[in-house]
Amino acid sequence: MKGNFAPLLIVQVLLCGLCVGDNPPMEDDRKSCSDLLIGQYLCAPPVISNETELPVSCEPDNSIEVVCKAADGVFCSDLDGNQSFTKRVPDGCRYSSGKDYQTALLLSIFLGWLGVDRFYLGYWAIGVFKMCTFGFFFVFHLIDVILIAMQVLGPADGTAYSLTYYGPHIVPLRFSNFTDIGREL
């Protein structure tokens, strides 16, 4: 009788291991899909509008909403019937109020000495000043052409220019306390 317990114990351990290994977590143990790590889901590219050539779901805070699918074996509480969920991606687009970059640049080149470019962008006070002083004797005219061409001077409401998808996007590099410069030790 002493030797009969070993095979029974091995079979019992194997059966318990098989039962526990494949069970998904209980409904109350699941995390939210927004808490998944980067390798646990895959997101589809955003839907691009044919008219604006920008993502359709672009919000004023420059975020977009994309459809993501959880990886096989990953379970979270926000999943619908086909293992997909929506995720908000920050800095996924450049929200535009409709001010066109090419229009602003052409107005600045040809009518900038009258302040028409500043009126178009929403800077009314500077536009009146440029109109009264002929572009501050053509000095501000040339400075505004350079600033608009480099996209340093944008619309007054803080949004980005309306550009084509493959247009001349200039992304400024901003530094903060969280910027990693990559110093060598």
Question: What this model shows, in words?
Answer:
The protein is α+β, with helices and mostly antiparallel strands and 185 residues long. The chain is 31% helix and 13% strand. It has helices at 5-21, 101-111, 116-121, 124-132, 134-137, 139-149; strands spanning 41-43, 64-70, 84-89, 96-100, 160-162. The protein has a three-stranded antiparallel β-sheet, with no helix packed on it. Helix 2 runs antiparallel to helix 6 (139-149). The relative contact order is 0.11.
Give the rounded overall mean pLDDT: 80
End-to-end separation: 68 Å
Query: Structural class, please?
Result: alpha+beta
Specify the overall morphology.
Answer: elongated
For the sheet with most strands, the description reads: 3 strands, antiparallel
Helical segment count: 6
Strand order of the main beta sheet, please?
1-2-3
InterPro entries: TM2 (IPR007829), TM2D1-3-like (IPR050932)
Domain TM2: 98-146
Membrane topology: Multi-pass membrane protein
Subcellular location: Membrane
